[in-house]
Amino acid sequence: MSAALPMAILASSLVPAAITFFLHQNSHRTRNTLSLGGAVIKLALVVAMLVDVAGGATHEARLALAPGLFLLLRLDALALLFMALSAVLWLLTTIYAIAYFGTKAELSRFFGFFSLCVAATTGLAMSGSLITFFLFFEMLTLATWPLVVHKQDDKSLAAGRSYLSFSLPGSAALLLAIIWLESATGPVVFTDPPDMSALSDASRRAIFALFVIGVGVKAAMVPLHGWLPGAMAAPAPVSALLHAVAVVKAGAFGVVRLVFDVFTIGQVQALGLGTPLALAASVTIIWGSLRALQQDEIKKRLAYSTVSQVSYIVLGAALAGPAAAVGGLAHLVHQGLMKITLFFCAGIFDERCGVRRIEGLNGLGARMPVTAFCFSLGALGMIGLPPLAGFVSKFYLGLGALQAGAPWVLVVLAASTALNAAYFMPLLYRLWFLTPAEDARGDENVPALVVPAAVTALASLAVGVFAASAISPLGWATLIVAREYLP
Amino acid sequence: MTPAQAALALMLALPLLAALAAIALPRLSALLALAALAAAGAALAVLGQAVLRDGPVTLHSGGWAPPLGIALQADGLGLAFLAMGWAVVAGVIGFAAIERRLPAPFWPLAMLLWAALNAVFVSRDLFNLYVGLELLTLAAVALVALGGDKALAAALRYMFYALGGSALYLAGVVLVYAGHGTLDMALLAGQGRLATDALALALMSAGLMVKTALFPFHVWLPPAHAAAPATGSALLSALVPKASFLIMMRLWFEAMPDAANAPLLAALALLGTAAVVHGGIMALRQSQLKQIIAYSTVAQLGYLFLVFPLAGGEGAAQPWAAGGWSAAVFLALSHALAKAAMFLCAGIWLMAAGSGALAALSGLARALPMTAAAFGLASVTLMGLPPSGGFTAKYLMMTAAFASGQPFWGLVPLAGGLMAAAYLYRPMALLFARDIPDHQPVSRALQLVPLALALAAIALGIFSQAPYDLMQAGRPETAEEGL
After folding, report:
1. What is the radius of gyration, based on Cα positions, of chain B?
2. Who among A21, A135, A153 is closest to B387 (CB)?
3. B128: closest CA among B177, B57, B195?
4. pLDDT surpassing 50 at residue B478
5. B440: contact with A, CB 8 A cutoff
6. Is the distance from CB of A365 to CB of A431 less than 8 angstroms?
7. Most buried among A219, B16, B17, B53, using CB within 10 Å?
8. pLDDT of res. B162
9. B483 touches chain A (CB under 8 A)
10. CA quadruple B18, B20, B24, B26: dihedral positive or negative?
11. Distance from B196 to chain A by nearest Cα, in Å?
């Protein structure tokens, strides 16, 4: 075990963040070098780790803050799943963002917080204890706010206000749950699930509920999702990061840690908490899809789609069976790849053609074939068309539902698939089959915007096609479940 | 006299010398103050090392032990407060030295205030503490009055309250002396309780509560802290109420720990809770930035009083007490740093925009990004969010509350943090407005001062183990293992 690697991975985004804040507005070259350099170094470190951890190694770093309060960074297979996703997507989003913003104002602030956001996500992934998880969870809350309000217009500021008025009470609930639990069990480390015998069943259920509320705000679980659709007022790279890897995933990842490493599957079932959580996830899945149907703005439709899709991960954890867990964990990556593709494309439509509403998509397929193709791949994957990524997730979730003796979940999955098709197919129809408006303009001749979208779109195809391979997200999720949660 | 004892004496002598020299040589006052600060910084380092190594450093004035002489002692708590005072005074003096537009009396007054604070932080004699408090009041009232004609009414009100508080405290001290024949805390703790002690403790506590601006005795604080010049407000809000609070702690935990009972301790915490709620609501309703910051002080001082049920009375020897007790110290320290940073930010914005109204902040984040960053970081501390000293305090406080079976007190900092987020969000959101207003330029050096103070408050959270260990040196009921 070595302590250097977790620290190095954290530093690969913290250091660029710290320097970027002090850069002059116009030192574009230095800033871009820092951001890209950090992203490349992090990716290299993560790839090196993947090999290492697959072989069974773990890495740990510990830093004492105060009695009972310590920072524990630990790289295990689950941490790496989330980290690999964030490392890949951060690099792509950085390339995209540099092209997207060009030489606009306030970029040092933007990229500083952008890097800080990724540092928080990385820390979250590596958190080895509850309190460490909370520290990075809060860091993420704060680092995201300046990104949400980046445009500094009334709409962004309202979105920022809404974001904080959901997030901060959510964090308070989370802190309360952590301290309540730890006052009875001592500091909770994920490798060693706490002995809760000092707590009554009612207290345990209350603590679980507080946890779910705390992380559910970030995971945008209905009715705590109100902030997410508004947050699409942020610039496209922020939306992409927010919806694919940073904030909502932090929430979903929190649910996974909560069910598997804090309460453990056995206890969740014994307390009868799995079914309510699965129900809450199902309600979110259906409600998010229904709301997505009603949106005419592309980014808003995508935002509600996120509300729906992220709860697949929650569902996978709640069903508490091996196949469902594999499906949920794989979806953590799958949803990230597909959703970031969609937001990249939405950003290109907006930036290059001024298209924000779905009517504007008419006939864009002819003028922007690559972007439209990527968008279509993402959308079809979300619907769950085989062999795309979304299909694999849904297949395993369905299998897991049967294993867990909850066949009603199949109905939810089927309904959700039908709704996904209902809100995505019209967009694809418009892209490819309708004739463009007379005053349509714009092209897609900006490789730095299109290439990241193409990479993620193809990746979402590849992870489905090669799902059976050991290094696919599915293969890795299977490794995690086999290694950590099966007797 | 050992080097550590000499350092302790210097902590009292240096500010006084600087004050006197500043009166004699007004042109050199900034330089003198900075020199005193540098020397005091070195003395503090020596003192800190000695306390960490050998425990509390004691100095008997004139070489006579109590009850004949007067004891000065720097334990972990006193040292933490000395360091807090040094850091804030250094920030404020640095700011004033760069700003160069304060009237001449500011310098000796600031040094006098610092001297009085240090005297209170290390004294163990109830009458000596009274003298320190009076000196502190005089310097503080004069600093408020530096705010000009408009500040006079606030200064006068402040003085009446503070003198009333002093009178109550002194009456208690007289009762103690009549009963025990000594005013030394260690000796008092060793003697049994007398019938008059309850009244004496009540009188002294009431006086100290007025001076600490505990709800409902807080009405003097917001106008006074809002009316003083920014540098004065920073000293007043960050440091002055902490002196009387420290005496409260010493009275209840060191001099008469056996006089406390659970309902009394809970009553103190209940007043603190009321202060958190009232201060938070009032801060939400202000239209002047400095008023918001001042009401936030009322709320933050309220948290401090939660220490009494969390670490006092029957539970004082329990393992959680160390956490609850340290939480109050962490809170006092991080609040001091963050609050000083905030008032200095307010001063910078007043220079830039020419108005102290909240609305005048609109768009200033882009004009003065460093100041906005400082305000943001200070806000993080006051909201008790990680990784700040404020969070460490909140965490320790909540853990102590839950571990001791008093979860209600744990909810107070949680709710208070959310209220702080609500009232601090208003200036933050305005700062982030899109259009840059017409404004006067402000030098980067000046902007650096609040940023440094706010960063120090954050650092207190990231590196909290060493300060925690330091605070435990000489703690009255040592349950060193913590939680």
Report:
1. 21
2. A135
3. B177
4. no
5. no
6. yes
7. A219
8. 94
9. yes
10. positive
11. 40
**Is B322 in contact with A67 (Cβ distance < 8 A)?**
yes
Query: At residue A439, what is the residue type?
Result: D
Q: Within the 55-114 window of chain A, which residues sit less than 8 Å (CB to CB) from chain B? A: 64-69, 105-106, 109
Asked if A371 and A453 count as a contact pair (C-beta separation under 8 A), the reply is yes
Residue among B341, B394, B400 at smallest CA distance from B371 = B341
User: Which of B22, B51, B59 lies closest to B37 in space, CA to CA?
Assistant: B22
CA distance A246 to A240: 9
Residue linked to tokens 């998509």: A361
Supply B71's token pair.
Answer: 């004891």
**pLDDT tens-place string over residues A7-24:** 888 888 889 888 888 888
ipTM of the complex: 0.91
Cβ of B398 and A179 within 8 Å?
A: yes
> How does the average pLDDT of chain B come out, rounded?
91
Taking phi first (over 0 means left), then psi (-120 to 50 degrees means alpha), and beta for anything else, what does residue B57 get? Answer: beta
Judged by CB atoms closer than 8 Å, whether chains meet at A134 and B399 is answered as no
Bridge-based pairing of strands B57-60 and B71-74 is: antiparallel
Q: What is the pLDDT of residue A96?
A: 93
CA atoms of A372 and A432, how far apart (whole Å): 8
Q: What does the buried/exposed string (b/e) look like for B453-483 if buried means 16 or more CB atoms within 10 Å of the residue's CB?
A: bbbbbbbbbbbbbebbbbbbbbbbbebeebb
pTM over 0.90: yes
Q: What is the pLDDT of residues B73-119, one digit of tens each?
A: 999 999 999 999 999 999 999 999 998 888 889 999 999 999 999 99
Distance CA B320, CA A94 (A): 46
How many angstroms separate the CA atoms of A272 and B3, rounded?
65
Helix, strand, coil % over all residues of chain B, rounded to 5: 80, 5, 20
Look up tokens 């806000």; give the residue: B379
Q: What is the pLDDT of residues A32-90, one digit of tens each?
A: 898 899 999 999 998 888 888 888 778 888 888 777 678 899 888 888 899 999 999 99
Band (B398; pLDDT cuts 50, 70, 90): very high
CA angle A413, A414, A419 (to 5 degrees): 95
Looking at chain B from residue 407 to 436, which residues have their Cβ under 8 Å from any Cβ of chain A? 407, 410-411, 414-415, 417-418, 421, 425, 429, 432-434
A389's tokens: 């990524």
Residue B181, sorted as left (phi over 0), alpha (psi -120 to 50) or beta, turns out to be left
Residue A164 and residue B433: Cβ atoms within 8 Å? no
Amino acid identity, position B8 = L
Structure tokens at B319: 């393992």
Task: Name the token pair of B439.
Answer: 């404004």
Beta carbons of A309 and A435 less than 8 angstroms apart:
no
Cα(B275)–Cα(B277) distance, rounded to whole angstroms? 5
A457 pLDDT tier (thresholds 50, 70, 90): very high
- Following DSSP, what letter does each residue of A232-281 receive, concatenated? GGS-HHHHHHHHHTSHHHHHHHHHHHIIIIISHHHHHHHTT-HHHHHHHH
Q: What is the 3-state secondary structure (H, E, C) of A363-405?
A: CHHHHCHHHHHHHHHHHHHHHCCCCCHHHHHHHHHHHHHHHCC
Q: What is the mean pLDDT of residues A270-285?
A: 94
Contact B395 A139 (CB under 8 A): no
**Cα(A269)–Cα(A317) distance, rounded to whole angstroms?**
12
C-alpha neighbours within 13 Å on the C-beta side of residue B171: 14
pLDDT digits (tens, 9 = 90+) for A346-367: 999 998 888 889 988 988 888 8
Q: How many CB atoms lie within 10 A of CB A415?
A: 15
